[in-house]
Amino acid sequence: MEYMLLINVEGDPGSGTEEQRQEMSAAFGRYTQELIDSGAMVGGDQLAPPTSATTVRADHGELLTSDGPFAETKEWLGGYYKIEVPSLDEAIEWAGRIPSLQGGGSIEVRPVVPSPAPQPSTT
Protein backbone atom coordinates (compact mmCIF):
# COMPACT_ATOMS: atom_id res chain seq x y z
CA MET A 1 0.00 0.00 0.00
CA GLU A 2 1.24 3.50 -0.77
CA TYR A 3 1.13 6.28 1.81
CA MET A 4 1.90 9.98 1.76
CA LEU A 5 3.84 11.28 4.75
CA LEU A 6 2.93 14.99 4.75
CA ILE A 7 5.45 16.96 6.78
CA ASN A 8 3.90 19.91 8.61
CA VAL A 9 6.50 22.17 10.20
CA GLU A 10 6.18 25.02 12.67
CA GLY A 11 7.75 28.43 12.61
CA ASP A 12 9.20 30.65 9.96
CA PRO A 13 10.87 29.03 6.96
CA GLY A 14 14.63 29.22 7.30
CA SER A 15 14.56 30.02 11.00
CA GLY A 16 17.31 28.79 13.28
CA THR A 17 21.04 29.11 12.97
CA GLU A 18 23.02 28.05 9.93
CA GLU A 19 24.40 25.15 11.98
CA GLN A 20 20.88 24.00 12.95
CA ARG A 21 19.74 24.15 9.30
CA GLN A 22 22.77 22.13 8.21
CA GLU A 23 22.17 19.53 10.94
CA MET A 24 18.51 19.19 9.93
CA SER A 25 19.46 18.89 6.26
CA ALA A 26 21.96 16.14 7.10
CA ALA A 27 19.36 14.33 9.24
CA PHE A 28 16.88 14.41 6.35
CA GLY A 29 19.59 13.11 4.02
CA ARG A 30 20.22 10.14 6.32
CA TYR A 31 16.47 9.48 6.71
CA THR A 32 15.93 9.61 2.95
CA GLN A 33 18.80 7.19 2.39
CA GLU A 34 17.27 4.78 4.94
CA LEU A 35 13.97 4.89 3.04
CA ILE A 36 15.76 4.23 -0.25
CA ASP A 37 17.83 1.39 1.23
CA SER A 38 14.70 -0.24 2.68
CA GLY A 39 12.95 -0.20 -0.70
CA ALA A 40 10.02 1.81 0.72
CA MET A 41 10.81 5.10 -1.04
CA VAL A 42 8.53 5.97 -3.96
CA GLY A 43 9.21 9.72 -4.06
CA GLY A 44 9.38 12.90 -2.07
CA ASP A 45 10.32 16.55 -2.16
CA GLN A 46 10.86 19.55 0.03
CA LEU A 47 8.45 22.36 -0.75
CA ALA A 48 9.26 26.07 -1.01
CA PRO A 49 7.93 28.23 1.85
CA PRO A 50 4.25 29.18 1.87
CA THR A 51 5.13 32.76 0.97
CA SER A 52 6.00 31.47 -2.53
CA ALA A 53 2.56 29.91 -3.01
CA THR A 54 -0.12 31.04 -5.41
CA THR A 55 -3.67 30.14 -4.44
CA VAL A 56 -6.11 29.42 -7.28
CA ARG A 57 -9.90 29.58 -6.90
CA ALA A 58 -12.76 29.32 -9.34
CA ASP A 59 -15.65 31.77 -9.21
CA HIS A 60 -18.44 31.02 -11.71
CA GLY A 61 -15.99 29.66 -14.25
CA GLU A 62 -13.41 32.44 -13.78
CA LEU A 63 -10.03 31.56 -12.29
CA LEU A 64 -8.89 33.87 -9.52
CA THR A 65 -5.34 33.83 -8.17
CA SER A 66 -3.80 35.37 -5.09
CA ASP A 67 -0.27 35.39 -3.74
CA GLY A 68 0.53 33.33 -0.70
CA PRO A 69 -1.23 30.51 1.11
CA PHE A 70 -4.98 30.31 1.59
CA ALA A 71 -4.86 30.76 5.35
CA GLU A 72 -2.45 31.91 8.02
CA THR A 73 -1.54 28.92 10.17
CA LYS A 74 1.02 27.98 12.79
CA GLU A 75 2.06 24.92 10.78
CA TRP A 76 2.76 24.74 7.07
CA LEU A 77 3.36 21.92 4.61
CA GLY A 78 7.13 21.69 4.28
CA GLY A 79 7.41 18.58 2.13
CA TYR A 80 6.35 15.00 1.68
CA TYR A 81 7.49 11.45 1.20
CA LYS A 82 5.53 8.91 -0.79
CA ILE A 83 6.30 5.43 0.48
CA GLU A 84 5.13 1.90 -0.23
CA VAL A 85 4.93 -0.38 2.80
CA PRO A 86 2.73 -3.36 3.75
CA SER A 87 0.72 -1.67 6.50
CA LEU A 88 -0.41 1.54 8.15
CA ASP A 89 1.59 0.53 11.23
CA GLU A 90 4.80 0.49 9.20
CA ALA A 91 3.92 3.84 7.59
CA ILE A 92 3.42 5.29 11.07
CA GLU A 93 6.80 3.91 12.15
CA TRP A 94 8.48 5.68 9.22
CA ALA A 95 6.55 8.88 9.98
CA GLY A 96 7.74 8.81 13.57
CA ARG A 97 11.36 8.86 12.39
CA ILE A 98 11.10 12.03 10.28
CA PRO A 99 13.75 14.39 11.69
CA SER A 100 11.64 17.56 11.89
CA LEU A 101 9.05 15.87 14.10
CA GLN A 102 11.29 16.33 17.14
CA GLY A 103 11.29 20.13 16.67
CA GLY A 104 7.50 20.47 16.59
CA GLY A 105 5.00 20.18 13.82
CA SER A 106 3.31 16.98 12.78
CA ILE A 107 3.30 14.27 10.16
CA GLU A 108 0.04 13.39 8.46
CA VAL A 109 -0.02 9.79 7.21
CA ARG A 110 -2.53 9.40 4.42
CA PRO A 111 -3.18 6.34 2.21
CA VAL A 112 -2.92 6.94 -1.53
CA VAL A 113 -6.04 5.91 -3.43
CA PRO A 114 -4.88 3.79 -6.38
CA SER A 115 -5.79 5.13 -9.79
CA PRO A 116 -7.61 2.74 -12.11
CA ALA A 117 -5.39 1.20 -14.76
CA PRO A 118 -5.65 3.01 -18.09
CA GLN A 119 -7.92 1.21 -20.51
CA PRO A 120 -6.84 0.65 -24.11
CA SER A 121 -8.57 2.85 -26.66
CA THR A 122 -11.36 1.11 -28.57
CA THR A 123 -11.27 3.44 -31.56
Keywords:
123 residues; Alpha-Beta Plaits; four-stranded antiparallel sheet; two-stranded antiparallel sheet; 24% helix
Structure overview:
The protein has 123 residues and is α+β, with helices and mostly antiparallel strands. It has one domain (2-111): 2-Layer Sandwich (Alpha-Beta Plaits). Helix content is 24%, strand content 35%. It contains two helices and six strands, in the order E-H-E-E-E-E-H-E. The model has no long low-confidence stretch (mean pLDDT 89).
Short description:
With 123 residues, this protein is an alpha+beta fold.
Can you lay out the helices and strands and say which pair or pack?
Blueprint: E1 2-10, H1 18-38, E2 41-46, E3 54-59, E4 62-67, E5 75-84, H2 88-95, E6 106-111
Antiparallel strand pairs: 1-5, 1-6, 2-5, 3-4
Number of structurally distinct domains: 1
Encode the helix/strand succession as letters.
EHEEEEHE
CATH architecture: 2-Layer Sandwich
Radius of gyration: 18 Å
Helix content: 10-25%
Instruction: Report the CATH topology name.
Output: Alpha-Beta Plaits
User: How would a crystallographer describe the biggest sheet?
Assistant: 4 strands, antiparallel
Strand order of the largest sheet: 2-5-1-6
What structural class do helix, strand and pairing data support?
alpha+beta
Give the termini distance in whole angstroms: 34 Å
